[in-house]
Amino acid sequence: MSCNIFGLIIFFVFTLNRVVKSDWINNYDNPVDFECHHTKTISYWRSIFNIGPRDRVFDLRCGFMEQTTALNPSCYWTDYVNDWDEPFDFTCPNHGYINGFRSVHDNYKEDRRMKFRCCNLPGMCVYNCQRTSWVNDYGEEVLHTVPVAQILHGVKSRHDNQIEDRLWDFTTCYYMRC
């Protein structure tokens, strides 16, 4: 009996660890600096808000894009796309895909400013783009996975000064030769 209970406890601990474990790329109140290989797009975006520091930690991952392996994209970092406490609605221009994310936090403003890394491939175009609408409420987890065979093309966000958090919305597109 005790062996069965011990085995069951080990099973639940292992399962729980797999479900909640994330690879946070920042600590609360610290910068985010994340970049995929130039032939990949950000394909997974998870973020948790903590009321204490009034900030988020991020877990971002890269996804392979089959059509891009033999091509040489041009990539660049944007300037900040938002000011403190302000909304933004950003998409990579010229049929680009989001390949990196940088962010800084200000403890006085209790907000983040964001930059994105965009990549463009010659002869490739976005089409059939879809917006997610808001994927979270203020203070709640953000969890977005880019559908298979698509790229992350845009991010939209709105800040609330009372809660000191943001809503998030993502634009994904198919990516094919023009």
TrEMBL record:
Predominant place of localization: secreted
A GO biological process held by the record: collagen fibril organization
Location(s) in or outside the cell: Secreted
Transmembrane segment boundaries: none
One matching Pfam family: DERM
Signal peptide as annotated in the record: 1-22
Keyword ATP-binding: no
InterPro entries per record: Dermatopontin
Alphabetized UniProt keyword annotations: Disulfide bond, Secreted, Signal
GO CC annotations, alphabetized: extracellular matrix; extracellular space
Family: Belongs to the dermatopontin family.
Name of the protein: Dermatopontin
